[in-house]
Amino acid sequence: MQENKLYDQLWHENALKLKQNMLEFDPYLMGKPDSRMGISLILRLNENPTLMSNIKEFYQTFHQLDPNQHMSQTESLHVTLLSLVTCREHFEFNVFNLNQYVQVIQSAINDAIKTTQKTEAINIMFKGITISSSCILLRGFAMNDLLAEVRKNLRIHFNASDLEHTIDSRYSIQSAHCTMVRFKQPTRLPIKLYKLIKQNIDTDFGEVESTYCDLVINDWYHTKEKSTLLARFPLC
């Protein structure tokens, strides 16, 4: 799988940095004022109790090793389908026409479903953990082609519209990963944390069948208290 190659590459690039405590740390999580907001289309993970239970179990073990890092709220865990407007300071939602955004997104989803001739949900298997330069990621694998097709059609429809967006401005998202932990300071037990991640590099956390996606206003961390649901779109 292409995703597996990406996750393995991240691990090989950053495992040594973790062991040497040389990861990148997020200054906003250490108290730097943060007013960044944006708009995202997301798939939520809380539809599968088994998946959530396995994630919480990992969180408990991680917290025992390093309680000072930022663990994503379990109710906010998600896969980003696409970041439509990347989080930025001085964000003002009132300059956006919500109805036009909804129409473009719905058209893109309809075209994706028609192209794939799929009536099932977006099915994602979460197996293993990897690490980026600043985060611990849950490895997600799309089990059908609907996720890729929706993303492709969203790019086509937004690029053909006059609507403001910043799709792919940071990077072109291809995987179905979920950000679990963000590092805000050096870890106190880097070798033990390295071993914990390596032990879970192939752990089967569970699957989720996403029958809908949510359009949300969000901060950088998708904090529940700062997120606003704008619209929900059925996928099957």
Write structural notes for this entry.
This is Mutarotase. It comes from Glaciecola petra. The chain is of the alpha+beta class and 236 residues long. The protein is built from five helices and nine strands. The protein has helices spanning 2-19, 49-65, 98-116, 146-159, 190-199; strands at residues 37-44, 70-71, 78-88, 122-131, 135-142, 178-182, 204-210, 212-219, 228-234. The strands form two sheets. The protein has a five-stranded antiparallel sheet with strand order 2-6-5-4-7. Strands 3-1-8-9 form a four-stranded antiparallel sheet, covered by helices on one side. Helix 3 packs across helix 4. The longest helix is centred in the middle third of the chain and has 19 residues, at 98-116. It is globular and about 50 Å long. The model has no long low-confidence stretch (mean pLDDT 93).
Q: How many β-strand stretches?
A: 9
Rounded mean pLDDT score: 93
- Low-pLDDT stretches are none
Largest sheet: 5 strands, antiparallel
Radius of gyration equals: 18 Å
Instruction: Identify the strand order in the major beta sheet.
Output: 2-6-5-4-7
Protein name: Mutarotase
